[in-house]
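re the bet — no i am not wrong, look at it urself. input seq straight from the record:
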Amino acid sequence: MTDKRSATVWTFVVTSITAFMVALDNLVVTTALPQIRDDLGAGLEGLEWVVNAYTLPFAVLLLTGAALGDRLGRRAVFATGLGVFTLGSLGAALAPSIEALIAARAMQGVGAALVLPLSLTLLSAAVPPERRGAALGVWGAMSGLAVAVGPLVGGAITEGASWQWIFWLNVPIGLVTVPLALRRLTESRGPAGRLDLPGVAIISAGLLGVTLGLVRGESHGWTSPAVLTSLLAGAAGVGAFIAWERRVARRGGSPMLPMALFRRRGFAAVNAVSLLFSVGMFGSIFLLAQALQNVFDYSPLEAGIRTLPWTAMPLLIAPIAGPLSDRIGGRPLIVAGMAIEAVSLAWLATILDTGADYAGLVPPFVLAGVGMALFFVPVASVALGSVPAEQEGLASGTNNAMRELGGVLGVAVLASVFAANGGYGSPGAFVDGTRPALWVGAAVLLTAAAVATLLPSPTRTAAPARTAASATPAAPATPAAPRALPVVGRSSSA
């Protein structure tokens, strides 16, 4: 085996393993949440932060992670991110309290933001052009598989050992892959534009304020000074970020996210749909994954198995939806997918009851999985087709960041609806809270379907590699492959 071929193989192995590990942590904790609540004495607010502490820093730093790789070296930043993720996993496994677990999850999110976009960049640079499509397809499939089996893996580990082992398993993988990355991956850099660190700080503070206010609203009172201050400060932070990015662009600098892109109808619409999709879907998953245990009294493993009709369905539908998207464009599939998602959540809200049978949940679960596939397959090509070719990396990173942010907001908003109408006191109380939350999720997804009609048609069709890489259920955590060089999430250097 030549040195070049050996380097390619090692790059494929290291990046695929890390993509699987990082994507797995998006949903692997969902079936462990009841056990975490019992073991650490956590309430609803704490469980929300167990999920959001991972996704919030990931969303905020996704664009910056790729830019740091361009400036400081992609291999170096990738290995650093993997090390941070491993340390966060160790901290989560050893967490003696819910506060410590949340802090460790935040560290994991920071590491994931450095690892995931650069894993795709490193792999694309190492693979010959004639084999790049197949390599990126497998990379995307690994990420999709991780999310599909995430609840099942989490349930099996929680039931067979304890929830801590969800995080312990990452530690030996990290200890092996960090030195492998430093030794086997080829270092590379991109255009070293100026990092928009003030922009990162402003948007981080703004989003944290909004999320904190939403999470604490029901327990502290929506009109309480602490909650109102948090929401208003967060909204002001988001507004300040928009103003700052425009100022940087006017002065000829390199903004983290050029606001001019949102003047393009297609770019604005696809990102709005992505945000709304994650609000409705992942907020619902947060509650339904717990309902399988709290209402139907399934064990963690049994609950994980019973999520498969939902989470694994995109892997079955993607091979059909991909060619269809190439023929008719992405807009019809996305509109249909959002409408189907809305119907599935409304169906679940109608039939969810303490006396319901699991068999009755299977059809709406399958329908939800079909809708997810119809969204994930074309969304990457639609996002990339909405901007000039030289800005595809930025478009991909932005779209993934919007989906992450939607997941954060979805968990916060739907959990607030849940808390206002029910709680953990009994199976009946859990159903009372979950039903209206699902109706809210359905309304959000119906809005997403309406917004999706604004997408331009016909859309630019995707290359086979891009379709394969994006056709996974790992939306919040899986960057898509841009057309030319798949540098995902490049910000100031894009």
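see?? Confidence is low (pLDDT under 50) at residues 459-494. told u. also The longest helix spans residues 129-160. so pay up
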